[in-house]
Amino acid sequence: MEVWTMKKMYTLAALTAISLTVAGCGNAEEDQAVESQAQNQEIENKPVEIPEQNQEAENKSVNSSESNVNDSNQNIDASSQENMRKKINELNYTDFELKVEYNEQKEYEVELEQHKHDQSVTAEIEDSLNGVNKRGVDAFNDIYPKVKQLTINQQTSKNDAIKEVLNVFGLSPDYAEFELDLTFKDGTKIELEDKK
Q: What keywords are annotated for this sequence in UniProt (predicted)?
């Protein structure tokens, strides 16, 4: 009986060794695939060396592109608070809040504000007419060029201000309620309201 038990143990040990060998071979292929993928990523992440002549030509191209940028402010890229602060300082206003309500509970609301306490800039669009909601830089890039076009000052009549805002923002004059709050750089505030 002891021989029979010994044979079982050797057979069991042999089967275990074979199983481990087979399992190990499968992992070797996977390891090789992972290693190959890692090498490909290393190659992709290596910086490309540009010969000096090509680099000079590229720099000239970039410089000429920068000099061709026009000042129409049509394509503002305010990608940070600092850029938004610089742009808002070009405006006559530190706070611009517009809310135009239409029938069927549709409204167009925009806000562009530079906060006094930390000079940060917030921008927001809530436009249920067109299903648009934006905040931050995206909203700023839409609102800023329009507000920059406005010529409203402390002497502008209510009707002229409303017409100008509706025109610049491309809004219908068939509103139910119009509200505009402006704060000028000197701290003067104007609040315009109109209901139809």
A: Signal
Domain tally for the chain?
2
Pair (24, 101) in one structural domain: no
Task: Encode the chain (196 residues) as per-residue pLDDT tens digits.
Answer: 555 466 666 665 666 666 555 555 555 454 554 454 544 444 444 444 444 444 444 444 444 434 343 333 334 444 578 899 999 999 999 999 999 999 988 999 999 999 988 889 999 999 999 999 999 999 999 999 999 999 999 999 999 999 999 999 999 999 999 999 999 999 999 999 999 8
Q: Yes or no: say if 100 and 175 are a contact pair by the CB < 8 Å rule.
A: yes
Residue 118 in tokens: 């930390």
In a domain, 151, yes or no: yes
- Asked if residue 84 lies in contact with residue 78, where contact means CB atoms within 8 angstroms, the answer is yes
Of 45, 67, 89, the residue at which a domain comes to its end is 67
User: What whole-number distance in Å separates Cα of residue 134 and Cα of residue 147?
Assistant: 16
Q: Are residues 42 and 87 in the same domain?
A: no
Residue 195 and residue 179 in contact, taking contact as beta carbons nearer than 8 Å: no
Is 0.70 topped by the overall pTM?
no
* Rg of the chain over all Cα atoms, to the nearest angstrom: 33
